[in-house]
Design brief:
Blueprint lengths: L1 E7 L11 E8 L2 H10 L7 E4 L5 E2 L4 E8 L4 E5 L3 E7 L4 H10 L15 H7 L2 E2 L2 E2 L4 E8 L5 E5 L20 E11 L11 H7 L7 H15 L8 E4 L5 E2 L1 H10 L6 E2 L5 E2 L2 H7 L6 E2 L2 E3 L6 E4 L5 H19 L8 E2 L1
Parallel strand pairs: 2-5, 3-5, 4-20
Antiparallel strand pairs: 1-2, 6-7, 7-12, 8-9, 10-11, 10-12, 13-19, 14-16, 15-16, 17-18, 18-19
């Protein structure tokens, strides 16, 4: 277990922002977490559970305790026509994807190279290229923050939606996830009709792709569009893609017939936030020490020495322009702290 006071979070957020927290505690087992929770006092509050730091925007000193899971381990159990893959919440998400693909376990290859850790996959319902974590989550093991008692949730308990779960709403701050079990198929079904996956495969002459082929294609696409946080601080997709009623889409497309769109549940339509931002002229622009990436307008970047206030101001200016141009509210995917 690691326990530090006045801890520098520069290396624990992918924007590379220089903020601190009053206390930082990292645990490697559920028992260590249980011990920590039993020992907390009012002076340690508030609590925030940090993962890989790829989905947060630090705007100030955090006056409480940051908890971080270092619970590792990947365990596969044969369950007939599927595999149950139980993973420690501190495992790096892409390492889990790589493991699954290498062992012929299917269903998460489209989620390759998404930054972050296993615990966050269940909280954020991470997704990309037409797939989401909730498509494969089977079970979540956690401890209640209030009394360190164990809790187990099934997929249907968690209220999953687009980048949403009950862990982000009514359960916010109530549980610390220790393990997530994914149900992965033994039968490979390719999903290649979202984004540029099919085009990428065709350029390489691949007609009948394997899961490894799709993983390679997704990694290539992401690396070509998204900056490396180690080089240029960022949190990946900053805004969620808006999901609108069909009538709203039709109104906008009447003026912008080239507007890309994708079907969403209940007859709604998903619009790419990056396209909306780009159409407002923000791609490649800089404001103070923050900017919009020049290849992907959905990504805000630290141009060097940026503060949380710099990035917040840039995000607000983008939201205002998109609202004025399209009548659509953009909502951040990142969490402001």
């Amino acid at each position: 277990m690691k326990d530090y006071r006045d801890f520098d979070l520069s290396g624990h957020n992918t924007f590379g922002l220089s903020e601190t927290c009053s206390r930082y505690v990292e645990y490697a087992t559920p028992d260590e977490l249980r011990s920590i929770l039993h020992s907390l006092t009012a002076a340690d509050m508030p609590l925030f559970h940090i993962g890989g730091g790829s989905n947060i925007l630090l705007t100030r000193h955090f006056p409480g305790t940051m908890l971080h899971s270092a619970i590792k381990g990947i365990e596969a159990v044969d369950d007939g026509d599927s595999w149950l893959l139980r993973c420690g919440s501190g495992e790096t998400w892409d390492d889990v994807v790589a493991y699954a693909v290498a062992h012929d376990m299917y269903g998460i290859e489209n989620l390759s190279l998404i930054p972050g850790e296993v615990g966050a996959s269940a909280v954020q319902n991470i997704g990309a290229y037409g797939r989401e974590a909730c498509d494969v989550i089977d079970k979540i093991e956690a401890l209640r923050i209030a009394d360190a008692s164990p809790a187990v949730f099934r997929n249907a308990d968690c209220g999953y939606g687009y980048r949403q779960s009950r862990f982000k709403t009514e359960w916010k701050g109530a549980y610390a996830i220790t393990h997530v079990t994914y149900r992965l198929s033994k039968t490979f079904t390719p999903h290649i009709d979202y984004g540029n996956i099919r085009d990428s495969l065709e350029r390489r002459g691949i007609v009948s792709p394997t899961a490894a082929d799709i993983r390679d294609a997704v990694i290539g696409i992401r690396q070509s569009k998204l900056p490396d946080p180690a080089v240029e601080g960022n949190a990946g997709s900053f805004f969620m893609n808006p999901v609108v009623e069909k009538e709203v889409y039709e109104r906008i497309s009447a003026s912008f017939p080239d507007l890309p769109h994708y079907p969403a549940p209940s007859g709604h339509v998903k619009l790419p936030a990056g396209w909306l931002i780009d159409r407002c002229g923000w791609k490649g622009r800089t404001m103070s020490r923050a900017g919009v990436h020049n290849r992907q307008a959905l990504v805000l970047v630290n141009k060097g020495g940026a503060t949380g206030a710099d990035i917040t101001a840039l995000a607000a200016a983008i939201q205002e322009d998109v609202k004025r141009t399209f009548g659509i509210d953009l909502h951040p995917e990142v969490i402001y702290l």
